[in-house]
Amino acid sequence: MPLMSTDLTGKVAVVTGAGRGIGRFIATTLAAAGMDLAVCSQTIVELDSLADEIRALDRDVLARPVDVADWEQVSVLVGDVVERFGQIDRLVNNAGGSFEPGPLADSDPTGWRQTVEINLFGTYNMIRPALPHIPASGQIINISSGQGLEANPNDAAYNAVKAAQTMLTRCLALEIWDRQILVNDVNPGLTATPGVHWSEHADVDAIVTEFETREAPWGASERVKHPREVADLVLQVARFATGEPTGQFFSLAQHPL
Amino acid sequence: MGNLSGKVALVTGGGRGIGRSTAIALAGAGADLAVCSRTQAELDEVAEQVKATGSDCFTGVVDVTDRAAVERFCAGLVDHYSRVDILVNNAGGGLERAVVAEADPDLWRRTVEVNLFGTFLFTRTLLEHISDGGKIINVSSGMGLKAGMQASAYNVAKAGVHIFTECLANELWPRRIDINNLVPGPVATSTFNRDDPSARTPTADILARFAEAPPAHFPEFERVKHPDEVGKLALWMALRPEGGPTGQTFSLARRPL
Predict the structure, then answer these.
(1) CA pair distance B1, B238, nearest whole angstrom
(2) Residues of A in contact with B256 (CB under 8 A)
(3) Which pLDDT tens digit goes with each residue over B61-109?
(4) Facing B256 at nearest CB: one of A1, A174, A178
């Protein structure tokens, strides 16, 4: 039986928001599994070192600084990817973030809109031009959030947009199943990434270590995970074959959502 | 896929279908097995296959709605192995297939008892013997997340299993026991095929029957799977490291739920 056993060698993955954090580990994990990579993020410095890492794994890489919220930039990126690699076997929409945490009553509309732009339009902007170039047996994997399934105070933009993104996943699954393309969500749960507001550390390993002896910020049942664990789940999902799950939500959370 | 040697796993309803595939998959990864079902001849076959992998197999004829029988079986199991590391609450089925207006109250009640109360009863009886850091996998159904017609007892019972899993996750995390739902989607089992118990259809024949399209109450993009595919997902869930996801749902469905 084929579950989670597809050979990814020589196939092409696109990972957005790949400069650091979860996206970076997804990119290197897929490269280690034999995939060629197209990676983008907003910061060129991080991309340079990532590209070196991928090349060190003997895989081909195309790295571009791109704001996924910008339709024009994304269109150029997808054109370049197709020119270089011919097709996109796995599109991982990872770029995202919460840019307007805090009470809605005090929120800045600019930050609120930016959160929607990156998480939702960023995902759409990538999918729309990529779709003609995703072959049968291809996949789209959207990095979602448990916050899209459960309400919380003080982060409404992120909650709302992640809910929208998950609905996008499900709608798209229904539209392109007949092209044999799978569309699924991966939910990282609580994961150490640079810049999280609940740790003073910038380094992933330091954050993980810090919370080995401290209660995690989202409840005692949650463990602060290393981004590598999320990348491992993305790899498992990427190994699904035609006819396997689509429109589903694969989650590493440690509390019911 | 990994190693379960030294672990003890119980699969309820393990005589055929998804339960049997799960038992054999877990045994194949090195776990010693306990299996119960209502049919001795099927248990004998499964025990033979489990033992062929080099694993031990403890079996018992049990109706999961019979509290005394469940307690007697669990006592024997604990006597034999002294603990359980992986509990797979798989026993279930849809017994009442009429619309509510015409449903037989006895069959309706029995459907809830087999699917929901049986899951509770095994969990309740074994909980003190489940190792800290162990796993509970409840075989649920997409029908527990979305209403259909002519299966209200099954819909309701599986919805109950879903929320039971979440309740238990909230209670068990201090013992580092991960408990998750497994949604198989349509699978070529005797239950799925609505066989008369006196004449069960071989898996290959059911797969052949639905090779072109699933039954009419499923969307055309669902695929009727071999039970071994579900066994592989159960194995993957059992192999998650301690501190893995809990209170989550892992699904092989191909329709958004």
Answers:
(1) 11
(2) 169-171, 173-174, 247-248
(3) 999 999 999 999 999 999 999 999 999 999 999 888 899 999 999 999 9
(4) A174
Class at the top of the CATH hierarchy for domain B8-185+225-244: alpha beta
Is CATH 3.90.1010.10 correct for A12-189+226-251? no
Measured at the CA of A188, the angle between CA A186 and CA A193, to 5 degrees, comes to: 135
State residue A217's pLDDT score: 79
| pLDDT at residue A232, as a whole number | 97
Segment B99-144, tens digit of pLDDT: 999 999 999 999 999 999 999 999 999 999 999 999 999 999 999 9
pLDDT band at residue B1, thresholds of 50, 70 and 90?
very low
Interface residue A212 vs chain B (CB under 8 A):
no
| Min Cα–Cα distance to chain A from B69, Å | 32
State the Cα–Cα distance between residues A15 and A44, nearest whole angstrom: 15
What residue ranges do the domains of chain B occupy? 8-185+225-244
A158 is catalytic: yes
Per-residue b or e along A202-229, where b marks 16 or more CB atoms closer than 10 Å to that residue's CB: eebeebbebbeeeebebeebbbbbbbbb
Q: What is the pTM of this model?
A: 0.93
CA distance A28 to A50: 8
Residue that is written with structure tokens 């899951």 in the block: B119
Which of A3, A150, A172 should one mutate to test binding to chain B, selecting the residue with the greatest count of B CBs within 10 A? Answer: A3
Single out the catalytic residue among A158, A211, A240, A249: A158
Q: From the DSSP assignment, how many helices (H) and strands (E) are in chain A?
A: 8, 7
| Spans of all domains in chain A | 12-189+226-251, 192-224
Mean local confidence (pLDDT), B149-167? 95
